[in-house]
UniProtKB/TrEMBL annotation:
It comes from the Bacteria. It holds the Pfam family FAD_binding_5. Signal peptide: none annotated. The lineage of its organism: Bacteria, Bacillati, Actinomycetota, Actinomycetes, Kitasatosporales. InterPro entries: CO_DH_flav_C_dom_sf (IPR036683), Diverse_Substr_Oxidored (IPR051312), FAD-bd_PCMH (IPR016166), FAD-bd_PCMH-like_sf (IPR036318), FAD-bd_PCMH_sub2 (IPR016169), Mopterin_DH_FAD-bd (IPR002346). This is FAD-binding molybdopterin dehydrogenase.
Length: 278
């Protein structure tokens, strides 16, 4: 779609004062999908030269805001880590054409803050943080579960840029499980639930998204009982935080989230083949 109110496109490498009507341009798959009458200038990030994925000295993984879904998916398929399957599973939850996959970015998926955003689900499940950079160069780091505050609502200040997502090294060693539900065979996620089990201390987490207005990550020192898991989810998620749109009513989303969470609990409390062989 043409954005006929945009008067200028600026290279983000050229530092200029932020002004009303500015917006960061990553892949543009959302920006150009519908009218944006409030925009006057786009600040293009495509030439920043950030490596899509990079390892830190301590083993943490940084995913650049400009990393595309295609690049993230390809990386996940080749990564020799226990948690690697979750990367591809969440990418596949982004039901879009190859053209969208080749342009849509990790930063854009997070900053849109849509409940069904699969990068949000992935990052929340792996206890990731986002690095935000202000116009004055100051930075701050937030857990993804704090960055996303609601449907379309995020903790992003005027002119602030999401630079990258950091996945802790330990998260990549976790055993994972994934479930997704939709009203249609190729429809948007109505509920997406991911779980992890830490092989070092036996702790268990479950992350509920898509069914809710924001991602919820619940941690347990030991795997909970079915009743305790259900109670924890119902305590954490207020009735008005179950999402409501044409892709699913709140009652159905809650029902599916609880059902999928219990499936994940059972899967991750069963010994893995590696544990059985030891």
């Amino acid at each position: 779609m043409d954005l006929n109110t945009v008067l200028d496109v600026r290279d983000a490498r050229r530092r200029e004062p932020w002004r009303p009507g500015d917006a960061w341009l990553g892949g543009g798959t959302y920006l150009f999908s519908e009218p944006q009458p409030h925009l006057r200038r786009l600040v293009d990030l495509s030439r920043m030269g950030w490596p899509p994925l990079s390892w830190q000295p301590d083993g943490d993984l940084d995913i650049a805001a400009t990393c595309t879904i295609t690049e993230l998916s390809r990386f996940g398929r080749s990564l020799p880590a226990t948690a690697a399957p979750l990367i591809e599973q969440c990418c596949r939850a982004f039901l879009a054409s190859f053209k969208i996959w080749n342009m849509a970015t990790v930063g854009g998926n997070l900053c849109n803050a849509l409940p069904a955003g699969p990068v949000i689900s992935l990052a929340a499940a792996l206890d990731a943080t986002v690095l935000l950079r202000g116009q004055d160069g100051a930075t701050r780091r937030l857990p993804v579960t704090d960055f996303i505050r609601g449907a379309g609502v995020k903790d992003l200040r005027e002119g602030e840029l999401l630079r990258c997502v950091r996945v802790p090294a330990r998260s990549l060693t976790l055993r994972t499980a994934f479930r997704q539900a939709s009203l249609y065979g190729l429809g948007r996620s109505g509920a997406l639930v991911a779980g992890t089990r830490d092989p070092q201390d036996g702790s268990f987490t479950v992350m509920v998204s898509a069914a809710t207005t924001r991602p919820f990550r619940l941690w347990f020192a030991l795997p909970p009982t079915a009743a305790a898991l259900r109670e924890a989810i119902d305590t954490a998620v207020r009735p008005d935080e179950w999402f409501d749109d044409i892709h699913g009513l709140p009652d159905w989303r809650r029902h599916m989230a609880l059902r999928l969470a219990e499936e994940i609990r059972r899967e991750l409390t069963t010994a893995s083949p590696q544990e059985v062989s030891r």
